[in-house]
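2024-03-11 09:14:02 DEBUG pipeline.ingest accepted 1 chain
2024-03-11 09:14:02 DEBUG pipeline.ingest length=143
2024-03-11 09:14:03 DEBUG pipeline.predict start
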Amino acid sequence: MTQVLPEHPPRHGRWPWSNRTPHAPDILAAIVLLIGEAADFAWTTFGYGMESWAAQDDQDRIDAATLTNIAWMEHFLYVVLVLAGLAALSRAPWTAVSHLLTACLVFTLLTGAQHEWNRAHPAPAPTPSAGYSPCYSGSGTCS
């Protein structure tokens, strides 16, 4: 006589991405995470700004604080993008959208900070090659 194997329960209920997240917890998570990320970003940026202020014209300390802030903003952007991916994987649309908007804002601020840094610290002019000889005649033709 053959025994029938018991049926396994469906697997779609075990994984977070199998069902869509209900609206109330999704919106609540989006709001809480948005407020937490904004507070963390503001507090850390304020801390690096205070470090620059405390440097009192010590340009090396100011530059170090600015570069550390830029590096921290890059890492913060990566964390926000990972959280947006996890929210999308969990099928929480409001949380994913709020994280993507936060990532756009952080990306804009990061780009502005990097642009300001690059304008304040231009690269040195390239040195001429060994075979270069300047023309001082003014005619434009040198031999």
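2024-03-11 09:14:41 DEBUG pipeline.report The chain has three helices and no strands.
2024-03-11 09:14:41 DEBUG pipeline.predict end
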